[in-house]
Amino acid sequence: MTSGLRALYPDTLLRIAITLPGILHVEKSPAQIDVQNALNSFKVNSLGPMLLMKHLSRFLPSKSSPSFQDIQSPSEVDSSPWHLPSHAVYAMMAARVGSISDNASGGWYSYRASKASVLQLAKTFDLYLQSRGKERAIAIAMHPGTVQTDFTHDYWNGRAMLQPEESAASLLKVLCGMKNGANEGRGKCWDWKGQEVVP
Ligand SMILES: NC(=O)c1ccc[n+]([C@@H]2O[C@H](COP(=O)([O-])OP(=O)(O)OC[C@H]3O[C@@H](n4cnc5c(N)ncnc54)[C@H](OP(=O)(O)O)[C@@H]3O)[C@@H](O)[C@H]2O)c1
């Protein structure tokens, strides 16, 4: 995967990345846990973002990389509706139900447990990026809100949901406003409103 990407984009630095893998097998009680479904949830929801991180990390800027301002043409700056930060942002889609502190209703064992790992991955990857590139790249996890996609198809009736475009625009706004200082938003999980989802 990495060599194929490098061949396609030999000199390109990754500036904004959002990794999305997520599946849900509903378990309302422990008796409903099925080993193959649970394994699949951990594969897609935990290992998926972990392997994407493994393969994509080398495309993020390090201390010696040229700055984005130096390699961005004025027309690119003018045509972008977003005020892109001067550092790279690597975001992994988590879910509020991956928060242990926020768990008031239980259920969804494999989804909750596998998504909790995404908050841990974001923190651990961010520490790596700090040591490798200081403020040049940050990692965060994100919660998109409850969004009307195939993922929530079974819950569409009678529940207020965001449209995908609305969620995506809000997430991008949060992501582009994320600061890169050691005590700022990096390494944490943020929702579409810009509020922290505590682990
Ligand atoms: N919708 C919500 O309300 C909601 C709430 C909280 C968190 N999330 C999270 O947001 C993310 C996007 O969800 P969505 O609502 O956009 O649902 P979706 O349309 O079902 O998207 C699911 C994503 O997971 C990928 N995926 C599924 N199975 C995979 C597999 N076996 N291997 C690799 N990738 C796989 C899909 O890739 P392809 O497109 O290539 O199939 C797609 O990018 C997920 O991580 C989900 O857990 C969603």
From TrEMBL:
Gene3D superfamilies: NAD(P)-binding Rossmann-like Domain (3.40.50.720). InterPro entries: Fungal_SecMetab_SDRs, NAD(P)-bd_dom_sf. SUPFAM superfamilies: NAD(P)-binding Rossmann-fold domains. GO terms for cellular component: cytoplasm. One of its GO terms (molecular function) is oxidoreductase activity. It comes from the Eukaryota. Belongs to the short-chain dehydrogenases/reductases (SDR) family. This is Uncharacterized protein. It comes from Aspergillus mulundensis.
